[in-house]
Amino acid sequence: MTEATAPRIEIGIQETVPTIYYQVAMPQPETHLFEVTLRLVNYPSPILDLKMPVWTPGSYLVREYAKNLQDFGAFVGDKPLPWRKISKNHWQINKSGFSELTVRYRIFANELSVRTNHLDSTHGYFNGAALFFRLPSWEKLPICITIVPPRPEWRVTTALPSVSDQANTFCAADFDTLVDSPFEIGSHQSYHFEVLGKPHELAIWGEGNFQTQRMIADIQKIIQVEAQMFGGLPYERYVFLLHLFAQAYGGLEHKNSCSLIYQRFGFRSRDKYERFIQLLAHEFFHLWNVKRIRPKALEIFDYDRENYTPSLWFCEGTTSYYDLLIPLRAGIYDAKSYLNNWNKEITRFLTTPGRKVQPLSESSFDAWIKLYRPDANSGNSQISYYLKGEMVSLLLDLLIRVRHNNQRSLDDVMRQMWQQFGQAEIGYTPEQLQQVIESIAGVDLADFFERYIDGTEELPFNKYLEPFGLHLLAEQEDEPHLGVKVKTENGREIIRSIEVGSPAQLAGIDAGDELLAIEGIKVTANQLSDRLKDYQPNDTIQVTVFHQDELRTYSVTLAASVPTKYQVIAVQNPDPTQKENFAGWLGVPLVTVG
Ligand SMILES: [Zn+2]
Fold first, then answer.
1. β-bridge mates for residue 202, sequence order
2. What is the pLDDT of residues 135-188, one digit of tens each?
3. How far, in Å, from the CA of 289 to the mean position of ligand 1?
4. How far is the CA of 346 from the centre of ligand 1 (A)?
């Protein structure tokens, strides 16, 4: 382990206030171990408490980051100090009269996701919450970090400002900022560009089939459109960290950066590229919505436990609404592609039975135990606050636009939230959010909230779409309904989920069963739909499965087919108001999508 030496940094503090300095080394990256040294000067109390966060903002699940910590030790010089553990993430050191001490530990980092740490022979990536200790009641102090790369060609990219005369040394204004600033260390590609006079960096780890010039041009357009919406860029510098590997998708927002994970060959096909641009537009939009415009429950993060809020539908769902709309406004895709995205999203929503069980506000509140922990029953009992939040945001945007002839929109809600709460970073309550939406809409929305946000009433898409010359068309295949989702896993056909109340469930088939045959003939996941088309509703078929190693055959009476696909299409003969509303919303004539 490399010995830490405190850098010469003037942070203008009084003598009784501690100086917190971290060094992060990785001498053998292939072991996946970060070697962390905390050096503390002027810590006033004889007892030092150190706590590792259990979660990281933006990803609402207790991840128990302390599980990756090993080889903990506290020292004055070479002399070990006594310490003990108080709880799973709480270490306590008896430093007695010493004013300077060093704490050393290793963090195992072998989970490649945007919210965890990853270190191997190709690079290092970490999130502050998963690497650094918090010093309770000293969270507001600045923290400096020196990275010690294992090889001379490895560079460091982070949104934190660097210390000019210290190699690979960065300073965070406080613990929240440290947690909010992931690091990429390695020989990644870096692309630098400006938007509205502000420097931006795109750092890419991993090979991929992206076209650099086109991608950067599109990112610049996304930044411009979002900046225009909010009236400027509220940062000095912004960093996109992009990790490319096999089949992957994910993003995590930060105030001055974001981490993105995407499939390395996901840039050639139009559909996949659009999905990447939406992901990027989404995380970038978060620098306003959720990083600065925050629910009250997330105004001050409690890193020790869940932080409950019923408003994640606005943080995530409204951001998802804009991640579809912004590439359209940026000219990256057309209105036809835009509505095609809606077809997929609405289909996903209207084929999820859980939308009738879990209200949107409850889905937000229970993110910690539900959305991030899906199981075979999730589809029957839950609805994603991303997905339904996006649907509700669409209805709200259309509601506001139609009431104000497109002179007002959800954009005004975002701007109002930004001015009232985001700029000063004051948390909003669910009531204040509703008030802002009502003030822009110019109407009492208690009934809307009760039905669609706090209740489970079916969303009236057509009522909101028709003033814009659109309506929703349900399509069904000529296939009687069974109600199972089957996936081929290691050559076995596994029933992943059973729709509540479906013929399969009524007959006794269970999620987890291995599907073997229909009417005595082997069937695979790929063949299932075609095989069912050979029967009629009310036909009874014999379905054979393995249920916990036991061979069973069930008699299943098939039901009438159900819609499997929904499409937003133009109404026939739209009137001038419908045409005008549509053009005001999406900026192109309705005829272009008809
Ligand atoms: Zn998000």
1. 191, 240
2. 999 999 999 999 999 999 999 999 999 999 999 999 999 999 999 999 999 999
3. 9
4. 18
